[in-house]
Design brief:
heterotrimer, A mainly alpha (about 200), B mainly alpha (about 350), C mainly alpha (about 475), A: mainly alpha, B: about 350 residues, mainly alpha, 13 helices
């Protein structure tokens, strides 16, 4: 009962936040709504006792990805009117796609419920069960190949991004921090011992 | 216990529904953690001024109350009765909510911090992840404050701070990976317990580079000197909180010090054995000596030590240049942590240090 | 699980190690000696071929809980892909040096792309397949945008990236549906659960499959998901176009064979119709629009679409002979495409891109030998006997006839005839028009020799296609 109340509350806020992402006029507000939506879905995961996924969602999406989003959104000057116009113009198409997805999802749920008996609620986890440990175990055994490939993709992304953005322009004045750090006082200042002049 | 609390009170308590009992006990626990925390924040402002004052051969605050101890309260009252000025053309809602967004994560993280072997508000499995997640949220307050103010100085401060925090968070995260490997658990209490066995088995020794990186990143993460380019008063006035006044400013102030306390506490827990006593092995102190017992006192002393280091750094170092900050974060700290994680793996394989069989 | 259990995956592992080595060594090479990176990359490729051949277990095996498959098909495709990438690097070298774009990242990205291709070839689950595809695509996006001074390259990279992201989304969406219905991501388990529970063969599964087909069609560049292909071919620098036009086609073939044949063979009746529509459209539109092109890279792009139509029709037939025919067609097409773009690269130099078909005018007068090679490639693609393209096309037409679709076979013949027109136009330009450009080729002797070998191979395979056909049949069976 208590769980159900929590679930519906979080779900309702999640849907509201998702709506907010679409309908808010200010892009920064939209990003903040998205942050809220991530929070709510993370809470839903917590309800399902998937604490690792829940926290990682916050850590990765809210803590890193959305910060960069916010960064970019704040820097660019978005013409709100034009964006809003697009919303109205493409709304029918979006609605059709959304409707299609809903129909198909319902059908999928129906197809599965035909063959499988619903267990009712989230499966309870045994005492001492750690979601993090379980995920780690499966990632490094069954899915280790896919996991490693994902790492390769990240490496590739780094190489690609650097090769596309790094260029050495001629005549650009830059500070060579390494040489600055390596500088020692004796290279710059020469202390000269001099005889004091005799008092006349 | 029974004699201290009258019987009718116990009956009343037992008559409450179980859910309500849980809520009340938790609120109680939260209060007994938060109240001292807020007091500590208040007094750390006092100590900061005192310590830096002495380092600069000044006296520091000495007017309000004995030894100037009333100074924090005077400051608070002054800030409370000041007007909160909201700049025109700023984004009112975000402007007001930003200080809260930086304060709440700083406080909420204390939920998983074990104060001694038994007391922790929420003893959860993924405590370390929770810490990472919440500390990564603090940046929102700064960014939103900078943007909502609608001022170039504030915006510059926010941009600097965001880039800096994102950069140092990675180093911090990697350092914690090392702690995780040594502690073998994500639960902060278990991490402390894994360090049992005296000062040399605390993680600061086997994880020395990570310890240094973690604490320095923590300083950068809290936007404290010498990494305080987000405020950088010589360049951008006061950075992201340039337009804040009164309570709103007080909240930012509070958040900064709460974050410092948090970083100190986390560093103590991850690397200095948390509540464990440094004199554990000194038998000449006698068997029952409180100096050898693990207790909350030791944790507080360790936190106080790191707070002192924060102030010390501020009094000692000039501010970093921005590109130097970025270089330190990306090109020094992250490689150092990565290398040390590999070294740790080797240590675990050879079964030395915390991994001794 | 011990180290020796990973042995079937040795090619991928060793290639990754070589990539890291090349990446690191490249850091310490000065710009004047950048060609060292090229040789290193080449060594990595040769090593890769060697590992693929040596590490092969005696029987088809799966490791990593079925997410990695080794079978003879994967071995053939991997060797072919590596060889073609090596060819591409060779042809690209002199061109890159002349235009001052000889950078280590080109080769590193190319090797990464090859890694993605190999992962796709050996994928045993939808997850691995998707990850391999992303590895390949990411490398390709970066390669297309490699020339940052050129707005066309940036535009086509953007187009490719956005459309590619949408296609990946479609693929992922389809994968999630398949997973939702069958409860597994592995091809073996998917096909088994469809076989065991026929009631699954219903709309939700078809829906997921449709998205998969869309994703596959996009990666292949089949109509109506072909819009990116001509623009990318034209916008990218020629070495990159060469790369995109060759090895990734092998990956796309692996994608379709693994997903539709290994995984969803039970739905053959359903996807057959979709594949047919896509294939016929590709065949017709590719061939017709190619006629109107004046840019040779764009023309070859449209011709690639038409060739994809052939490959898809071979898969469409649904028999083992059909799959073998598609393999044969892809292998030979890749060789011809690499050669044709190699010719484009040969004619290009500093400040001059041999992009217009007119740039081939009078090639015979300038260099009879390379005009002959170009003629080989063009005749091969057009399907003129005895060049190899003829046998590839004949095979496909045969399996389509065997499957009982004479109408389609007639259409294919007609399309080939239309296609012959634009290939022959290039030949006409080379032999019967006057040269406007008289400059000497600047490619090295080794490149020329390799290009000649490539051209001769098109002829030799056409004269004696038997062994390759037998090989294709053997690895499919």
């Amino acid at each position: 009962m208590f769980q159900a109340i929590l679930f519906y509350t979080f779900a309702a806020v999640l849907i509201g936040a998702a709506m907010g992402v679409i309908f808010s006029r200010n892009p920064v507000h939209a990003v903040m709504f998205l942050v809220l939506a991530f929070f709510q879905s993370s809470l839903l995961w917590l309800l399902a006792e998937a604490e690792f996924l829940a926290i990682v969602l916050i850590l990765v999406y809210v803590g890193a990805v959305m910060v960069l989003f916010l960064f970019v959104v704040m820097m660019i000057d978005i013409n709100v009117e034009r964006v809003q116009g697009g919303l109205v113009r493409y709304a029918p198409l979006g609605l059709v796609i959304a409707g299609l997805m809903v129909v198909e999802l319902v059908q999928l749920i129906w197809a599965r419920s035909r063959f499988e008996v619903a267990t009712g609620g989230f499966a309870a986890t045994p005492e001492g069960y750690s979601n993090t440990e379980a995920l780690g175990a499966i990632l490094y055994t069954e899915h280790v190949y896919a996991f490693e490939i994902a790492a390769v993709i990240l490496l590739l992304a780094i190489v690609a991004a650097i090769s596309l953005t790094m260029r050495k322009r001629e005549g650009l004045k830059v500070q060579n921090i390494t040489s600055q750090v390596a500088a020692r006082a004796k290279d710059r200042v020469r202390v000269v011992k001099m005889e004091a002049e005799k008092r006349q | 216990m029974g004699s201290l609390i009258p019987q009718f009170a116990l009956d009343l308590w037992n008559g409450l529904p179980v859910e309500l009992q849980t809520v009340v006990t938790h609120v109680f626990k939260i209060v007994i953690v938060l109240l001292p925390l807020i007091l500590a924040v208040a007094f750390s402002t006092y100590f900061e001024r005192k310590i830096i004052g002495y380092m600069q051969r000044r006296i520091g605050p000495n007017r309000v109350g004995p030894l100037g101890l009333g100074q924090p309260f005077a400051d608070v009252i002054k800030l409370l009765i000041k007007e909160v000025v909201i700049p025109t053309r700023s984004n009112r809602f975000l402007f007001l909510i930003a200080p809260l967004l930086s304060l709440i994560p700083a406080f909420a993280t204390w939920a998983v911090i074990p104060l001694n072997d038994t007391f922790v508000i929420a003893d959860i499995n993924a405590g370390l992840l929770y810490v990472l997640a919440l500390t990564s949220l603090g940046v929102y307050g700064v960014i939103l404050a900078g943007w909502a103010t609608n001022s170039k100085y504030a915006f510059l401060g926010a941009m600097r701070s965001a880039a800096q925090i994102v950069a140092y968070e990675i180093a911090m995260g990697f350092a914690l990976v090392g702690v995780l490997m040594a502690g073998g658990s994500l639960n902060l209490g278990d991490i402390v317990r894994a360090q049992e066995g005296g000062i040399t088995s605390w993680f600061w020794l086997p994880l020395l580079p990570l310890f240094v990186v973690y604490f320095i990143s923590g300083v950068a993460e809290t936007n404290r000197a010498p990494f305080d380019v987000a405020e950088g008063e010589s360049e951008i006035v006061a950075g992201f909180h340039v337009e804040y006044s009164g309570v709103a400013f007080a909240l930012f102030f509070l958040a900064e010090y709460a974050n410092m306390l948090l970083i100190s506490a986390l560093t103590s827990i991850f690397f200095l054995g948390g509540w464990a006593s440094p004199f554990e092995g000194l038998t000449f102190l006698g068997d029952g000596s409180f100096l050898r017992e693990p207790s909350l006192m030791w944790l507080c002393l360790k936190i106080a030590f790191f707070m002192f280091v924060f102030f010390w750094l501020r009094a000692t170092f000039p501010r970093y240049r921005y590109d130097q900050i970025m270089r330190l974060g990306w090109k020094v700290f992250i490689p150092v942590t990565l290398v040390w994680i590999a070294v740790e793996a080797l240590m675990a394989w050879l079964q030395v240090g915390p991994w001794a069989a | 699980m011990t180290i020796s259990d990973f042995l079937p995956a040795a090619p991928e592992i060793s290639l990754l190690c070589s990539i890291c080595a090349v990446l690191l060594i490249d850091l310490f090479i000065s710009d004047e000696k950048r060609v060292v990176t090229f040789w290193l990359a080449l060594v990595a490729l040769l090593l890769n071929i060697w590992v693929v051949v040596v590490s092969a277990p005696p029987d088809p095996t799966t490791i990593f809980d079925g997410s990695y498959i080794y079978d003879p098909l994967s071995q053939v495709l991997k060797v072919a892909a590596t060889a073609v990438v090596a060819l591409g690097f060779f042809y690209a070298r002199d061109y890159l040096r002349q235009v001052g774009m000889l950078k280590g990242e080109f080769f590193v990205l190319g090797l990464f792309g090859l890694l993605g291709i190999m992962i796709m070839i050996s994928a045993g689950s939808l997850l691995t397949m998707y990850l391999g595809l992303e590895t390949l695509s990411l490398a390709l996006y970066a390669l297309v945008a490699f020339d940052r001074e050129s707005p066309q390259a940036a535009e086509s990279a953007m187009k490719y990236f956005v459309l590619g992201a949408i296609a990946s989304g479609a693929l992922l969406y389809g994968i999630s549906w398949i997973y939702g219905v069958t409860g597994s991501l592995k091809f073996a388990e998917i096909s088994q659960s469809i076989a065991v529970r026929p009631e699954l063969n219903d709309v939700p599964l078809w829906f997921g499959m449709a998205f998969l087909v869309v994703g596959i069609a996009f990666k292949f560049g089949a109509v109506p998901f072909h819009m990116w292909l001509p623009d990318v071919y034209q916008g990218a620098r020629s070495p990159v176009t060469l790369y995109i036009a060759s090895a990734p086609k092998l990956a796309a073939l692996a994608l379709i064979l693994r997903v539709l044949v290994d995984g969803l063979e039970g739905l053959h009746g359903v996807w057959q119709g979709m594949v047919m529509v896509i294939a016929v459209l590709s065949l017709v539109i590719g061939n017709v629009v190619a006629i109107a092109q004046s840019n040779i890279k764009r023309m070859l792009g449209y011709s690639a679409i038409a060739h994809v139509g052939f490959i898809l029709l071979a898969v469409f037939a649904g028999s083992e002979a059909g799959y073998a025919a598609s393999l044969f067609y892809t292998l030979t097409y890749v060789i011809m495409a690499a050669g044709a773009f190699g010719m484009v690269l040969l004619l290009s130099r500093q400040g001059f891109e041999a992009e217009a078909i007119a740039d081939f005018k009078g090639l015979n007068a300038r260099s009879p030998w390379f005009a002959l090679m170009m003629l080989f490639f063009m005749f091969g693609m057009a399907g003129v006997p005895p060049w190899v393209g003829f046998f590839a096309k004949l095979n496909v037409i045969n399996v389509v006839l065997d499957a009982g679709f004479p109408g389609l076979a007639i259409l294919m013949v007609l399309a080939s005839v239309v296609g012959a027109y634009y290939y022959l136009r290039v030949v006409w330009y080379m032999y019967f028009e006057r040269a406007e450009d008289k400059s000497v080729f600047q490619a090295g002797r080794d490149t020329r020799a390799l290009l000649s070998l490539n051209g001769l191979a098109v002829l030799a395979l056409g004269i004696a296609p038997g062994w390759l056909l037998a090989l294709c049949l053997a690895v499919i069976g």
